[in-house]
Amino acid sequence: MEIELRAKVSNPQLLEEKLKGLSGIVEKKSNERQVDTYLKQENDEERKMIVRIRKNYEKNSAILTFKGKSKNEHDIAWQDYDTPIEDPERLESVLVNNGYVYVCLIDKVRQSFGYGDFEINIDNIRDLGLFVEIEKQGEEDSVEVVKKEIIELLSTLGISESDIITQGYVQLVLNKEK
User: Fold this and answer.
1) What does the H/E/C string look like for 96-115?
2) Tell me, what's the pLDDT at 59?
3) Topology of the domain covering 2-177
């Protein structure tokens, strides 16, 4: 299970300094453009199962992700499964023609780092701005423990607890569109 928190970045220079100061941090991706198309079954009003098609333009690749909400209804924890796909446009067409509807599109440039068991992403999202997102794999019963660990790491990066957002990017985009 993927457990993640994010925060809007108000001081990119401070974040960059703090990242460089972390011992053992490793850059995994540098400025990759990713376009995520989110779809759901037409009758799934609560978005309990979302399908994401992620196109990575730098790698000329695509990934299909199934995301299922946590049983505890945490918006920070999702069961997910990724698989590479060859023809994202064709798959999108098949899904739309078989009862799936669009939820939203998220266009971002991502820089990723590995730090121990954590993945740290710096996302510049079109129409939303700059965010830091930290994720870690965990189990359903460890969500609160992992959440505390992520909050501590965000604090180390100069992010105050009041700036942390528990909503995912999908919800942030949907709120902005209202």
Assistant:
1) HCCCEEEEEEEEEEEEEEEE
2) 86
3) Hypothetical Protein Pfu-838710-001 (2.40.320)
